[in-house]
Amino acid sequence: MERRQEENTLNSIQTKGPVLFLLSINWALFGALTIHVYLYYRAFSNDRRILKAMVCLVYLLETTQIALITGTAWEELVLTAGSVQDSVGTIWVSVYLVGGAVAIIAQIFYAYRILMISQNKIIPGVIVIMSLISFIAAVVLGVLIKSVDNFTGDAVHTMKISALMGIWTGASAASDVIIAGCMCYFLSQRIRAGCFPKTQAFITRVICMTIETGTITATVDLLCLALYFPPTLKNFYGVPISILAMLYSNTMMTLLNSRMKPVIISESETWKHNELSMINVSTPLREADAKLRFASTTGTAESGLRIPEEGTVA
């Protein structure tokens, strides 16, 4: 009797534990994304419409995903408490379809930035092709997962699903590595070509963020594979695979908001306007009234990820 209770407890931990982890991490990342989006629309209201529409689309997709994941977690942790269900539910939509859509949007965004920086069409084309392959694999996976009874059972570890899982995460990780490497290389070329200190500092900041964000997304992609194939860890691969979309959207918004910088304005101006705006840091201020705020480094209609012009605030 005690042995059976221990087995039930262990099964419950292996099935409901990952659900609790992925729910907590997704809500934390969604909170960070909400702040990113708020700051973006306040600071860069003059960005091109297509860029603002892309940000809006990504946020709507992530809102849909977090709602579906929360509903699935509620069913697993509350409605079926005390039993081991681990049903598919809406996971095939929230994890695979939405995750694949957000990933391809982010990677095409990076590919376009590389095209603008390098004027080289070959590398962005390779990134777009690999992103499409990854997206198609994610969609097919979602359709196949919908037909299985258990999200972590043997039904999701067939040869076909395993091959698609490898294509999806492998192509996505390869795209992330290419993006990080190319962004760093072409931006470094700008530095070696000679630029003012403020522009150099901006480029260096973008390079560091590109390496960090690219490393994170590629590592999580590979972690999905590492947890998916071993039979003893098959219940835990759902955690990294469910947060991939949130990671891509947050890294994309981090790059877009990297154009913001902290500046000093007077307290009276803060209370008067109460908004993010372009601030001239040369304006004389009283030290006692100084407050920290954010302002755009560019704010032009062509902004997105452009190297600041020499002589502007970087």
Characterise the protein shown here.
With 314 residues, the chain is mostly helical. The chain has a single domain, classed as Rhopdopsin 7-helix transmembrane proteins (Up-down Bundle), CATH 1.20.1070. The chain is built from 8 helices and 2 strands. It has a two-stranded antiparallel sheet. Helix 1 runs antiparallel to helix 2, helix 2 runs antiparallel to helix 3 and helix 6 runs antiparallel to helix 7. The longest helix has 42 residues. It is globular, with a radius of gyration of 22 Å.
Largest sheet: 2 strands, antiparallel
**Total domains:** 1
What is the distance, rounded to the nearest whole angstrom, between the alpha carbons of the first and last residues?
69 Å
CATH topology: Rhopdopsin 7-helix transmembrane proteins
| CATH architecture descriptor name | Up-down Bundle
Helix count equals: 8
Strand content: under 5%
The ordered string of helix (H) and strand (E) elements is HHHHHHHEHE
What's the overall geometry? globular
* Helix share, percent: 55-70%
Which CATH first-tier class would you pick? Mainly Alpha
Q: Which structural class do you get from the secondary structure elements? A: mainly alpha
Q: What is the topology, as strand order, of the major beta sheet?
A: 1-2
What does the average pLDDT come to?
76
By DSSP, the count of extended strands is: 2
Radius of gyration: 22 Å
> Oligomeric status of the shown chains?
single chain
Uncertain segments of ≥5 residues (pLDDT<50)? 266-304, 306-314
Domain DUF6534: 172-260
Organism: Pholiota conissans
Protein name: DUF6534 domain-containing protein
Keywords: Membrane, Transmembrane, Transmembrane helix
